[in-house]
Structure formats: C-alpha cells, structure tokens
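Appendix B. Chain record.
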Amino acid sequence: MGTQKLKAAVISAGMIANSGHIPAYKAFSQDVSLEAVCDLNASAARDTALRHDIPRWYSDVAAMLEEVHPDLVSVCTPNSTHKGLVAQALKAGANVICEKPLTLHYADTVELYALAEKLGKQLVVCQTSRFQRAYFAARDYIADGVLGNIYYAEIDRIRRRGVPSWGTFHRKAASGGGALADIGIHALDAMLWMLGSPQVSAVSGFTSDRIIHSERGVIYDLKESGAFSGVHTARRFDPAECDVEEFASGSLRTDAGISLNFKVAWAANFSDRNNMMILGDKSGLTLPELKLYGTLGENQTDFSPRLFGLGEYDDRPFAGHYYLIRHVIGVLNGTESLMITPQQVINTAATLEMFYRSSELGREVRRNEIM
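Structure tokens predicted for this chain:
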C-alpha cells in the first residue's frame, strides 16, 4: 500500500476499544487514519467518537463497512461474536485485528484463517502479552539452546479479586469461557510462543466458580480486573449470572515432550501473580523478571540479564496494543513479517477447546478428539 494511509475502523465502543485499540491507532496517525467506530449501543458509539475525535460513528456494522471501506478493522466485541464479525469484515475487503481469543474452537479458527487466505487478507489476533522485552529475550535464549532440552513449564496467573464486573465476561453465551479464555489465553499464548510453538497434544482441566457465587459485600477494583483506564459504559454486574469459571487449572502435553501446568484465576484467596517457569536440562528461567538458573563449571549459577524496554509506549495502559498495531501496520506495508501466525492461533484455540471439554468430562482430552 506504499505510503498511503490505511483507513481503520473499530467495532465496539467498550473498554478495550477505548483504552487499547483507539489510542494505539491515534498514536500512529502518520500511517493510519481512524475513520469510524461502531457499536450496537448508538450512544456509546457516539460518545466514543466524540471522546477520541473520530469522524463517524455507527450502530450497524454492515453500513459502516459499506460506507467507510476500511483497510483495517479492529473487532473488540464479546468472544461469541468474533467469528461472524471477523468473517463479515474480511468479506468486505478489510484486514482484521481481533481481540483474543479469536474463537474457542479449533474448527471455527481454521475456517476463519482459510477465509482470510482465500480473500488475500491478514487476520491478526491480539496476543499482546508477547510484546514484552523479557519474553522476547526468553524466547531467544530458548531458541539458541541456552536451556537445553525443555521438559517442563508452569504458569501462575492469579488475580485475588479481579472479576471483570463491567461487561459480559462472566456469561458463557457471550464469552464462551471465564478466566482462562480472558486472561489465561494471554499467558498460554506467550508461553507456547516462547517455547517455539510446540503443538499441544492433550489437555486435562479443572474449573471452579465458588467464590463469585458465595461472596458478597467485597469491593472489586476496576484496575485489578483489567480496566486500567476505567470504563465508560458498563452494564450492572450480577454474580448470579456467572456461568463460567473464576478459576482454572490444568496440565497440557505437547508433541515436543514438554509438560505444562497452569493456574489462572479471576478470584482466589491468594496474592496476585503473573509468574512463569521454564525448565530445561541445561538451565531454567523465571518470568516476569527474567532470571536464569544453571551451572558454570563446578558451580551453580544465577544469572539476571539487563533488559531494556521495547520503546516509548511501555508506560501506557495496554502498551501491547500499541506495539501490535504498529506491527500490523508494518505487515500491511510489507516491512514486517507476521509474528502471530495462523498455526499458533489454531494451536491455542485447540488448547482452549480441549481444556473446556476436559473440565466437563473429568478426564484428559486428546487433540484428535476435537479434529
């Protein structure tokens, strides 16, 4: 597309659109022009357009796509709507950035990528947790063989009281899943990416929703639940509506012989944490403060590399969205290669599907069962 500005549009006037996608598009106004925002709630769309100085607002997606003809569309709606809206935007001639997870099912994810390939369009999922210097460094160490043969990894992604209370995250009909599909998918994606994207072959999962249905009168903080910049429009939160997990734990096996255990929670009687551990036969490492553990000669050694930020957006809420959208602009302009590939997203979708089926059946589910 040369030096011509890309025309962008955003579907949804919710929290992540207002706090992540729209500010990121505005930060790269030399390369992209944000032309429109659309939401079923017309007043929310109008208010968002006024708030961010967006020229047009809509309450009908088809009308927006037809009139604006965007080159790039961000889909920021609840998970259950992703498949239909992504397909609609692709068929209208747009490249698409979709919030995670793209879908919670292997077949649906394969279908969307096949459509994007057929139409010659890019489909990029917002796996923005990858965009951290420590994660890039860990991935490089692993690829360079510093850890040796990796056999075990672990994720702890715990919010003490971080149940999203402003949208429909807690309703299965809208989100398809709870804590794992919301915050756990970021950690799983980043971990698998750092490990070199091994295919997940089997998953055993467990879920719980005990706290949200039994606890009353406890104050929830919006920042703890992921709304770092606040919420402009919110529906009334009713815990009785919650039919997804607040806590998820599980174990997965990969075709590379790696076992990965994880705990993910919106609510747990434990301290907040966002920790990872990776063990190899030469070294191990921990994140988010990257530290390596190994030996040097006859001595055991601990090693902490000096790391610097990715850039000027590190201190902003949802910094990953800035780096992602900058990356997508580069991909569309032909200066970068896509780093969130179809096979990687298909792998995480298969993992989610195996997990939720396992938690329902009470046994391990293998990949061939969902194919």
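Further analysis of this model is presented in Appendix C.
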